[in-house]
Design brief:
It is a single chain. The chain is of the alpha/beta class and 364 residues long. It has two domains: 6-244, Spore Coat Polysaccharide Biosynthesis Protein SpsA, Chain A, CATH 3.90.550; 248-342, 3 Solenoid (UDP N-Acetylglucosamine Acyltransferase, domain 1), CATH 2.160.10. Helices cover 20% and strands 33% of the residues. The chain has nine helices and 30 strands. It has helices at 21-24, 37-47, 62-69, 90-96, 98-101, 120-129, 188-194, 205-214, 234-245; strands at 6-11, 31-32, 35-36, 52-57, 78-83, 106-110, 113-115, 133-139, 147-154, 157-167, 176-184, 219-223, 228-230, 251-252, 255-257, 260-262, 265-267, 272-274, 277-279, 282-284, 289-291, 294-295, 299-301, 306-308, 311-313, 316-317, 322-324, 329-331, 334-335, 340-342. It has a seven-stranded mixed sheet with strand order 5-4-1-6-11-8-12, with helices on both faces. Strands 14-17-20-23-26-29 form a six-stranded parallel sheet. It has a six-stranded parallel sheet with strand order 15-18-21-24-27-30, with no helix packed on it. A hairpin with a 2-residue loop joins β2 (31-32) and β3. α4 packs across α7. The radius of gyration is 22 Å and the shape is elongated. It binds 2'deoxy-thymidine-5'-diphospho-alpha-D-glucose. The site of 2'deoxy-thymidine-5'-diphospho-alpha-D-glucose (DAU) has 28 residues, from β1, α4 and β11.
Amino acid sequence: MAPAMKGLILSGGRGTRLRPITHTSAKQLVPVANKPVLFYGIEAMAAAGIGEIGIIIAPETGDEIRSAAGDGSAFGVRITYVVQDEPAGLAHAVLTAEPFLGDSSFVMYLGDNLLQGGIAELVAAFEAERPDALILLTPVPDPQNYGVAELEAVAGSERGRVVRLVEKPSAPKTDLALVGVYMFTAGIHDAARAIVPSARGELEITDAIQFLVDGGRRVEPYVVKGWWKDTGRLADMLEANRLVLETLVGRSEGELVDSQVEGSVVIEPGARLERSTVRGPAIIGSGARLIDAYVGPYTAVGEGCRIERAEVEHSILLVGSSVIGLDGRMESSLLGRNVVIRRADAQPRAFRFMVGDNSEIEIL
Ligand code: DAU
């Protein structure tokens, strides 16, 4: 019998597109509906019956990821951490994990990706059909930002055949992007060893898969049915937050004083609402305080946050942040940990900022 399939989650890399949040925190730990993105990948693997998961970490953010995900027992899996010294590419990450993976087949999941519906069906299909690789694809409006696949029709096959894969082409031939979930047999290690770094200086998994295609190996394409999000950029992060919040079933374990909740809203234990309205879908984290506040749809308010005399909508607030006394409504925003935004009491009434590197502020 073939050895059990393993899991490999990539949580290294730099996270340049979500700075300044990712100056101090790993991008895979930014929460979507108050849960780190990374946890969705671990849970998807656990639900597909994968018990052994390796997580690639970078030296800079690895400790934070270790302490968040632990030994995996909270998810019913065993986690092994694999340090990748530099973000030299996804295929480099696979090679770094070779001692952990051995000759097992594995699912590789990019730690900042979210895939609706999980991977159980795909893992079952891979184990039944045993191709050399299975890749997930989805049409996107901006294929130049992704790995892009060209397929060819095959008589009698619904899926077709992979002809070419190109990483971030300037003139994409199709709109089919490679989703950050892949299934491989151990043959991918030799493919990763055979390729050379790309123009951006990385060993691309896209090139390693192309190497398999060129060698006549079976690379099965699978177009995903549900939604998929790479949360690397702010707009995608907010969109992922919206999509996940839409699936939550409302419940209230907090305290409501002269307050209303409309639609699907999760209020976690110890949260307190006074003279406030929350219109779901939304989540209010434990210990958060809402006072004379309005929280609108698609908002995730982290643990211990405070919103007072303010309106917030379509936003993500990380642990310990506050928004106090705003005239207008804050919208489509991502606040890091312990951020304070408040109306000045003292004269002169002016804008006063203390803002970290690479922050972005838009005012009325
Ligand atoms: O999101 C899907 C796209 O992911 C695919 O369409 C592309 O073909 C694929 O190359 C990849 O592109 P990105 O440029 O978005 O990958 P990114 O650098 O954001 O890295 C993805 C994840 O892998 C992220 O969680 C960081 C981690 N990583 C990245 C590198 C380069 C590592 O763990 N080690 C690395 O060396």
